[in-house]
Amino acid sequence: MTKLYGALEGGGTKFVCAVGSSPEHILEEVRFPTTTPAETISRAVAFFQKFKLTAIGLAPFGPVDLDPASLAYGSITGTPKPGWSNTAILGEFRKVLDIPAVFDTDVNASAFGEWYWVPTNKALESLVYFTIGTGIGSGNIVNGQLIHGLTHPEAGHMRLPHDHKKDPFPGICPFHGDCFEGMASGPALARHWRMPAELLPDDHPAWDLEATYIATALANTIYMLSPQRIVLGGGVMQRLLLLPLIRRKVREILNDYIQSPVFSGTLEEYIVTPALGKRSGILGAMALAKNIKNSS
Amino acid sequence: MTKLYGALEGGGTKFVCAVGSSPEHILEEVRFPTTTPAETISRAVAFFQKFKLTAIGLAPFGPVDLDPASLAYGSITGTPKPGWSNTAILGEFRKVLDIPAVFDTDVNASAFGEWYWVPTNKALESLVYFTIGTGIGSGNIVNGQLIHGLTHPEAGHMRLPHDHKKDPFPGICPFHGDCFEGMASGPALARHWRMPAELLPDDHPAWDLEATYIATALANTIYMLSPQRIVLGGGVMQRLLLLPLIRRKVREILNDYIQSPVFSGTLEEYIVTPALGKRSGILGAMALAKNIKNSS
Asked: Distance between CA A226 and CA A219 in Å, rounded?
């Protein structure tokens, strides 16, 4: 019998729960709004209880505690989302489901999903996945494993050059003002230009600035991590003009410094959109479950 | 009989060659100036030929080609150092020494040395080593392995915020002007303040700016890689006032965003100087040799 895996992608506005064995074999999937922690989590738990699962992957919105030695391990820690600070996720599942469980950030799950399920990605040793939407974050695969380290990457808070003459907007990050997320997230665009990002016309100067911030962050990522591929997901990347503009600006910023055949081309295979589309996160949570030792 | 390993640290001004089995057991070590590639390399080869080695670790100055599939693998590629562009290093050794050989950047070797030989570092999964001197570079250990990826990290070329009002210096990087290395390397300090960095007095405003650039780069490193420890080596770090200033500024820049017990303290165990002092590179090259599969 095919083994079944549970996958949870817990976002700030909705939770997605799926059971299956691969992207092509999803037995059942539900999605429901993120309300109170008690209601939302018990709904998810009840869904998974219907199945005989081999393992489960839990990927909620962050910040989360990923340190197995910590008392708060498996929890959402301090979040601006009302009522959700210090919410045990893994703990609630453990009370009811006696199966191997893996807990990670939603963006780490997306990175892992893009790597695990996409053969041309899995052939690589390293891949960075950025989500550029309501927030900005990255999941980094190095030598075939996710980076955790001290906590987990928080690439959205990287500091970037900011030419205040060209762009006087001070940024919206409550911690850092004009960090990457503070300048380039969807809400930052909306506040800056006083309209929802999706209403900004293609010829609005917002997009050239946006591409510059993203391309600078990618250049820094290339300098720091030297990844073999970069995947750009998230709502802001739905704007189709961005991707080619970002590729061009990354090359301009690197200015032929990195000597690799990759950078002599147009970067069309180097900086890409998610092969799994909007399903990187939920399928990544499934991949994490399947990747637990002895569970695949 | 104890196995013997060869180690080469090939710098732009001098080459160091050592043979031994551990930091405490160095059989012989020589150092000589970096002259022409032919003379320098044959001198190194002749030294190692005297011994019966199990393996050798070669760590020359960069940029180097680390892609085993490339024709230029094991070479120094395009370097400003006259005569040294496209110099095969590994190839010259292979002609003469029929032993397992590993080739990596000098800064990767330093990172690996600090991790491999220092028990409190080896207990960690991740560590970033920065050298801040004539150039700036980093070696990154993640999940117990060096990051290579597409080429190798080039963290010195990271783009950082640059407040031109506070610091109008345009930077000296021939590729990027005011990147991290362009603003904060030893030669950048010398050009900026028109005197060698070591002559700048402790109360010179140069040091506060220097600490700001370094601390910002470290904050970006923490956001991107979430390392469990950061080691700062290189000539500029000989200035003792820098380390505590950098630690303080890193905390200011992060502004309590990263929730880890590490960041509630003074960072004295988190941002450190090399435990191996100036010997990280040569001992790292030895560690790389010892780490070759089946050679320890």
From this structure: 9
